[in-house]
Design goal:
Helix 9 runs antiparallel to helix 10 and helix 10 (about 220-230) packs antiparallel against helix 11. This protein has about 260 residues and is an alpha+beta fold. It has 11 helices and 12 strands.
Length: about 260
């Protein structure tokens, strides 16, 4: 079946074109082109926008705004985003990172979407043609909204932690991923925001572990309650990479290592 490509100068025009049957937005193409190559017959038209704002990274006043078309490689090498570069580098190998976009990663189903896990930990705002949404609300639906970009407060490097566990380094599909923003005063945790990948059909918060970390020090004896709570409320996926049982078993192991790194 032939595929058409329609290009529009504004995101609003591209969004309107998505109302046509078989139309799908294309950014870097790592998701939709793969779907087409694998025989998704529901696809007939790729829609894209050339709006230059979609490819811009702005960091002002400690807050970053990243356009939806920005590639992972651009995030990884941006000097003002070095604190979160590790999460961007977790997305595939170099060829994929040069194509995969920030906007597209928000729609990637588990076991993909490593950068979306980081954005959840960062409490990002998702900017869409229909208005702004908190990332949790966006991920809960991931409906037909067209993403223009994301924004978030850039954390100090020492406050952001990220790990991706995979069977093949450095570009393997995730067994699981964990992102955390942990703020501490006088050695004790003041706040923690922890996000998990592959523990549901979308990135989710580890709220029980967040609560257990409050007031604790990042020492072996103090983090034990949070490690014990990390699996509460998770529903890991099963795929060719790992079973749900395996993912649940190794989650506390890697979470503990993340906290004590």
């Amino acid at each position: 079946m032939p595929l058409a490509l329609k290009t529009y100068p504004t995101l609003a025009e591209a969004g309107s074109a998505l109302s046509d049957a078989g139309a799908r937005y294309i950014g870097g193409g790592t998701l939709v082109v793969r779907a087409a190559n694998e025989g998704d017959v529901s696809l007939s038209t790729f829609v894209r926008s050339t709006d230059p704002e979609l490819s811009v990274i702005k960091v002002e006043g400690g807050r970053a705004t990243i356009g939806a078309s920005v590639a992972m490689s651009a995030v990884a090498r941006h000097p003002d985003l070095s604190a979160i570069a590790k999460a961007a580098r977790a997305v595939g190998g170099p060829a994929i990172r040069n194509m995969a976009t920030v906007g597209g990663n928000l729609f990637a189903a588990a076991p993909y979407g490593d950068f979306a896990v980081a954005l959840l930990a960062l409490d990002a705002t998702v900017h869409t043609t229909a208005g702004d949404l908190g990332i949790e609300e966006f991920l809960a639906g991931r409906d037909g909204r067209v993403v223009a970009g994301v924004s978030f407060a850039v954390p100090p490097a020492e406050n952001f932690r990220f790990v991706k566990v995979s069977r093949v380094k450095p570009k393997g599909v995730a067994v699981l991923s964990i992102a955390a923003v942990i703020e501490a005063d006088a050695g004790k945790v003041r706040s923690a925001r922890i996000a998990l990948g592959c523990m549901a059909d979308r990135p989710i918060r580890a709220r029980s572990a967040e609560k257990a970390l409050a007031g604790a020090t990042l020492r072996e004896e103090d983090v034990a309650p949070a490690v014990a709570a990390i699996g509460e409320g998770v529903h890991p996926i099963t795929d060719a990479i790992a079973s749900a049982w395996y993912r649940a078993e190794v989650l506390p192991v890697h979470f503990r290592r993340l906290l004590l790194e």
